[in-house]
Write a structure and sequence with these properties.
Blueprint (H helix, E strand, L loop, with lengths): L11 H14 L25 H24 L1
Length: 75
């Protein structure tokens, strides 16, 4: 590497240039190593919300609350 004319330290631009050039060329191996042929770990199926049970519960709760409100309003 070349040194600057003012001291013994290498020029920062040349150091950066050399580092980038070395990084770009790598180790001479053009193709990265291929991973072994393994399947990824299986993801568990997420639990689904029981939609019909929720709707049935909401319907029954609505009927119950409506009935209680009707009885209270008659008193």
């Amino acid at each position: 590497m070349s040194t600057s004319s003012t001291g013994g330290e290498p020029d920062a631009e040349r150091v950066l240039s050399a580092a980038l050039r070395a990084q770009a060329t790598g180790n001479g191996n053009a193709e990265p190593e291929s991973a072994p042929n393994r399947r990824p770990p299986r993801q568990p199926n997420p639990r689904r919300l029981p939609v019909l049970l929720v709707l049935l519960y909401a319907l029954l709760l609505g009927i119950l609350v409506g009935g209680i409100a009707g009885v209270i309003s008659m008193l």
